[in-house]
Design goal:
Elements: H1 2-21, H2 24-40, H3 42-49, H4 55-66, H5 72-83, H6 90-104, E1 108-114, H7 120-134, E2 138-144, E3 152-156, E4 159-162, H8 165-177
Parallel strand pairs: 1-2
Antiparallel strand pairs: 1-3, 3-4
Membrane topology: Peripheral membrane protein
Protein name: ATP synthase subunit delta
Subcellular location: Cell membrane; Membrane
């Protein structure tokens, strides 16, 4: 609990700096890149959490890994975490930043369940459907579940739109079970 409060304080400070410089969207993209990179690399995660490796060495690895891809505010965060010996908090800070950024921009998280991973084209179509349903944009979180067979299930806040093939099959099954189907023989 104490660590999450500290991560939130760091994230708020970073958002305030980013807003002053007008780079909050770029910093948000940087934070997503950091979270994704740590999630993909178990070695990086272990290195950041290791008490044996010096904070200066961790910062050097992060600077070498990300190079010029990151905004100066994020690079400054690396330096600050090194000084305070809190490199272990990099991932929670990045996650908290994304949450408060979305709140700041009035963006909701849309959970889209599909049978296969979303392509960019499908994300654009789903974003259009989100705007049609809610009137606002949302960040898309894709959940892959092969059990839905095809189509998608979209959930934004308390609104759910089910366009999956499995739900259509279930609807047909209910119609057959209720006797609404009349064969034409």
């Amino acid at each position: 609990m104490k660590e999450s409060r500290a991560a939130l304080r760091y994230a708020k400070a970073i958002l305030n700096l980013a807003k002053e410089s007008g780079n909050e969207t770029l910093v948000n993209d940087n934070m997503k890149l950091i979270v994704d990179t740590i999630a993909e690399s178990a070695d990086l995660d272990v290195m950041l959490k290791s008490p044996v490796i010096k904070a200066a060495d961790k910062r050097k690895v992060l600077n070498a890994l990300f190079g010029d891809k990151l905004d100066n505010i994020v690079k400054g965060l690396f330096n600050l975490l090194e000084e305070n010996k809190r490199m272990v908090m990099l991932e929670p800070i990045a996650k908290q930043y994304a949450v408060i950024y979305d709140y700041h921009k009035n963006m909701k998280v849309a959970r889209v369940t599909t049978a296969v991973a979303l392509t960019k084209e499908l994300e654009d179509k789903i974003q259009a459907k989100i705007v049609a349903l809610t009137g606002n944009n949302a960040s898309i979180e894709n959940i892959v579940n092969p059990d839905i067979l095809g189509g998608f299930i979209l959930r934004v806040g308390d609104v759910q739109y089910d366009a999956s093939i499995s739900s259509q099959f279930n609807e047909l099954r209910r119609e057959f079970d209720n006797g609404h189907y009349i064969p034409k023989i």
